[in-house]
Amino acid sequence: MASSSPVYRASEPDEVEALHRLVLASLDDDQAVDTISIPLAGKSSIADYMVIASGRSTRQVASMAQKLAEKIKAELGRPTRIEGLPTADWVLLDAGDVIVHLFRPEVRTFYNLERMWAFGDAPTPPVAPAIANALYAATGVRLRQLPLIPGGE
């Protein structure tokens, strides 16, 4: 369920950059996978940055989202709206100037937000081996694969 508090937008570029650095550092600390940042300033009015990252499980995705929202509130005093936390397949955090999408790898591959929002600038995200093999069998096209996770497939 989303919080109903208003989302704060900074008027100073330094505030936006501080938020962006905090988001990237928090995701790095929580071992997010394939984190990318897409600059949206001048391309969209919804935010200045969109950050996309993956977690290895719904538990990791939910934990990263909760910790990030807490850090933003504690360090910058900003409320953060969160969507998708109960299932944690895809969690959206709206911190005003930075929007964060956290995915499980299979869900990230399916929606491919990098391609939609990067305006052709972002690389194609890696895919799970089972998905890559099925697509190769059907189309003959090889895709970049995620490394196998012990206990996974």
Structure, explained:
The chain has helices spanning 13-29, 58-76, 105-111, 113-117, 129-139, and strands at 33-39, 49-54, 81-83, 90-94, 98-103. Strands 1-2-5-4-3 form a five-stranded mixed β-sheet. Mean pLDDT is 80; it is low at 145-153. The relative contact order is 0.17. It has 153 residues and is α+β, with helices and mostly antiparallel strands. The radius of gyration is 16 Å and the shape is globular. A hairpin with a 3-residue loop joins strand 4 and strand 5 (98-103). The chain is built from five helices and five strands. Helix 1 packs antiparallel against helix 2 (58-76).
Task: Identify the notable features of this structure and list them briefly.
153 residues, alpha+beta, 5-stranded mixed β-sheet, 18% strand, disordered C terminus
Summarize the biggest pleated sheet.
5 strands, mixed
Average pLDDT works out at 80
Helix-strand pattern: HEEHEEEHHH
Distance linking N and C termini: 32 Å
| Cα Rg | 16 Å
Percent of residues in helices: 25-40%
Number of helices: 5
* Outline type: globular
The class by helix and strand makeup works out as alpha+beta
Strand order of the largest sheet: 1-2-5-4-3
Report a brief summary of the structure.
The chain is an alpha+beta fold and 153 residues long. 39% of the residues lie in helices and 18% in strands. The chain is built from 5 helices and 5 strands; from the N terminus they run αββαβββααα.
